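queue> holo job accepted (alpha-D-galactopyranose)
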Amino acid sequence: MKEVVLKKFEELYGDTQGVNVYFAPGRVNLIGEHTDYNGGHVFPCALTIGTYVAVRKRADRKLNFYSMNFENLGITESSLDDLTPSEEAGWTNYPKGVMWAFAGRGMVMDCGLDMVLNGNIPNGSGLSSSASLEVVTGYILKDLYGFDVTNVDLAKIGQYSENNFNGMNCGIMDQFASAMGKKDHAIFLDTANLSYEYAPLVLDGAKIIVTNSNVKHSLVNSAYNERRSECEKALNELQIVLNIKGLGDLSEEEFEANKDAIKDEVRVRRAKHAVYENQRTIRAVEALKNNDLKLFGELMNASHVSLRDDYEVSCEEIDVLVEEAWKVDGVIGSRITGGGFGGCTVSIVRDEAVETFKERVGAAYLERVGKTADFYVVEIGDGPRRLV
Ligand code: GLA
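queue> job finished
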């Protein structure tokens, strides 16, 4: 990949003298979905796929962006004097948002950049191509301009810019997983205070398989923002009777005893998911520590049911993938992963069942949905870095 972006850079900008190449990964979340903006726990890991960027400083204030994933767009031109979001800016709103967020923290770039990007995260798959783009941009700014930020800061800045520049009210999980990724480890993150722990993820005799439904339903961002505000409302109602900061503060018992404070049936289900999913995540990590993969898998399955029925962020295509996965012998657990409304599922599958899994789930998906699913046996990789 680094040769590919360098070659393109030379083609577009003349030569590769003084050009650097950077990478930041995408992520898959194993369990802990829609808990990160509720002060709960998440358990994602960084992937070995992500976003590659060849970049060089310019003498003036121009910004030139080029993505090999959208070659038809050509070079999108902008400038440091135009760090405002716009529809025409398309995908470049992500790197521009990060530059804007750095500037807002007093870290002001004194010259522009020429960039070539290439990502190998399938588009719209829910494996966080946008977070990887935000994190790689932040890492580039830190490295090229000497800004004093940690990788945790990169995650916070990425989330801040996505919330405030791109209008997507996401939590911090995706940016944190990309910025703090560690090979062969998942990250057990408490989003209430950003304390975290790395859990080794060398699964004995099993693999993690990501299945791409190849569907992404429209209005994902607005449905996501709506879920988030439903949870905030439910929290406000609970705060009338309880002294809590987030839904993640509650045990299942405390929730059941106080849920009548929530005055709407839909909001009760949303909040129930947030509370139970957080407890499932804590239990799942404990199960993994005890080498109890069976329990880990059961908790993944329960997570799916809750996301499907109570949180309502699944969709028909994803439910077919999960149901068909559950039928295959040797599948330890399977669930939707990421924001929802399409995208991917994550499954833990015994080594000897991997081929059958792909065949059966793939065939059933084609038959029932009329679409092809893609399967990736996932490798867990490190966070952002400079490659050249
Ligand atoms: C998206 C968001 C994350 C998180 C997940 C759901 O990926 O970007 O912050 O909320 O959805 O768990």
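queue> The radius of gyration is 21 Å.
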